[in-house]
Amino acid sequence: MIRRNILAGLAGTAVLTPLARSASAQTRAQGGDAELRQRILAASTFAVMTSRLAATRATAATVKVFAGFEIAEQGAIMQAMQIAGLPVPAQVQIDAEHAQMQSQLEALNGAEFDRMYLQGQLTGHRELLALHQRSASSGTREEKVISTIAIAGIEQHIAMLQGMQGRQG
């Protein structure tokens, strides 16, 4: 009888230990630097919002193509965060500076829109790069993985944006 109780207890421990580890990992994943994650989400949201505008207001085909890439990239990053168990709110509020630029872009069309969109995206990508670099060095394991991958895409986008700006000037 005692032997059966010991075996049942050991079996229960074998089942519960992975579950406890999983819960612990999820708690750590949801921890991390919440303020940093919020700033990343806000910058990503700004990139998507302005890129949606670019789909209808931009003149240059390259700007429209870039906007599509940006929307897809930010969507993939948000999806990866959710898969990793990181909290991603349904709605993210952008800061006052981004809101002001969004309003300015909404009032523009054509080549003037293209110029301001590219400048806003370049500034925003530099901001995202710095945020993801910080997350890659100090975040949770999950945040480090996502940010490490994001950094490569952001660096490519910065190069693309600089090239597009050079062709406009």
Strand-residue proportion? under 5%
Q: Taking all residues together, what is the mean pLDDT?
A: 84
Number of domains: 2
Structural class: mainly alpha
Contiguous uncertain segments of 5+ residues = 5-30
Span of the ends, CA to CA: 85 Å
Quaternary structure classification = single chain
Largest sheet: none
Q: Tell me, briefly, the overall form.
A: globular
Quick structural summary:
With 169 residues, the chain is an all-alpha fold.
Which key terms come to mind for this protein?
169 residues; mainly alpha; Ferritin; 6 helices; 85% helix; globular
Walk me through what this model shows.
- This protein has helices at residues 2-30, 34-57, 61-83, 96-106, 110-138, 141-168.
- The model is unreliable at 5-30 (pLDDT under 50).
- The longest helix has 29 residues, at 2-30.
- With 169 residues, it is mainly alpha-helical.
- Helix 2 (34-57) runs antiparallel to helix 5 (110-138).
- The protein folds into 2 domains: 1-30; 33-168, Ferritin, CATH 1.20.1260.
